[in-house]
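Re: the request from the purification team.
They wanted to know what the chain is likely to look like in 3D before they choose a buffer screen. I agreed to run a prediction and write the result into the notebook, where they can find it.
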Amino acid sequence: MDKFKQFLKNISPITDNEFADTISYFSEQNLKKGDFFVKQDKVCQNIAFILKGTLRTYYINEKAEETTSCFCTENNLTTSYKSFILQQPSNLIVQAIEDTQLLVIDYENLQKLYSKSTVWQTIGRVVAEREYIVMEQYASVLNNETAKEKYLRLLKEQPNVLQKANIEDIASYLGVTRRTLSRIRQEISK
């Protein structure tokens, strides 16, 4: 719980009493490797803070291939934001790539926190702003960086993902084939 409390404090000052009230709206959820947090075509009911573990967010493209859009790591939030916010079926899938421990809140309880707490109104706004910036940066990276530059960025920003995710998922995240990824890894190791 200390990690979550620190995460919130980094967004907005929150007193011990406010945190105690906040945590009463959350519950723990444990996922085994391969378990789904969000399933495609289902309405996403929860948003999660990752206490331990890693999840992969992906979608099925028009060729029926899995395309990874995000690796979600410890001390971060995850959900299918569009589905969660609009309460509509998700186009995304969020799946644990290792045993994962989450702190989750459902849509209804999050709305209760927003309505009763100015701290949570601030937290919600800042989280939304940060998520928008992350998505914009990801789009820019996909369009403006070479595969090798994307790999080096992943190596710098999320090195643990390279040990946890399989090569196909990393390749789809970078927008390259498995063969291209292997070639990039060989070039870098020289």
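For the purification team: Strands lie at 27-31, 36-38, 46-52, 55-60, 66-72, 77-78, 93-96, 100-106.
Please add any questions underneath this entry.
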